[in-house]
Amino acid sequence: MEKNRLIEIARLVASIIICQGAGLVGSIFTTPAIPTWYAALRKPSFSPPNWLFAPVWITLFALMGVSAFLVWRKGLGDPQVRIVLAIFVIQLILNTTWSVVFFGLRSPLGGLIVIAVLWVAILLTILNFFKISTTAGIVLIPYILWVSFAAVLNLFIWRLNS
User: Fold this and answer.
1) Count of domains in the chain?
2) Which of 11, 19, 33, 100 is positioned for an S-S bond with 64, CB 3.0–4.6 A?
């Protein structure tokens, strides 16, 4: 019994580290652009202060890790679990890709396209996670809400700066 508990803890930690790692990769492209390129952009009045983004994303990546763990613990032997986790990985890659495109390539239009696809991938992830673990689906709701806000912010930034 104790061995199974240690395996569960290791899977939870691994899930969170993988998600935080995706955030870390995205931050490599984001952080240098904040005081330079991003600071020079015109932004809408509802744009949050820059300091808010890091704690929000750290929290959301942790929630993503918990959510993925709740699905993973159902067992990789289940083909549905493997498919749903593959969808999860795709949305995680899209999340990082948004940072690369928006901040790294300095492309609000490209970012808008990526975030639209990301939003759909998150929705598909949530809907499929609900089929396996209701809690896993619920845990991702703040994520899709924040990405919805980020998409609107991205749209306004693109419009104000094109």
Assistant:
1) 1
2) 19
Tokens found for residue 68 = 């993925």
Q: What is the CATH number of the domain that holds 134?
A: 1.20.1260.100
Q: pTM above 0.90?
A: yes
Task: Give me the helices (H) in the chain, please.
Answer: 2-30, 39-40, 50-72, 79-99, 108-132, 134-139, 141-161
- Look up residue 10 and give its two tokens: 């290791």
Question: Dihedral of the CA atoms 150, 46, 42, 101 (nearest 10)?
Answer: -10
- 96-134, pLDDT tens digit by residue? 999 999 999 999 999 999 999 999 999 999 999 999 999
CB 87 within 8 A of CB 67: no
Which residue range forms the structural domain that includes residue 124? 2-42+50-161
pLDDT, tens digit (0-9, with 9 covering 90-100), for 24-65: 999 999 999 999 999 999 999 999 999 999 999 999 999 999
Look at the chain and count its residues. Answer: 162
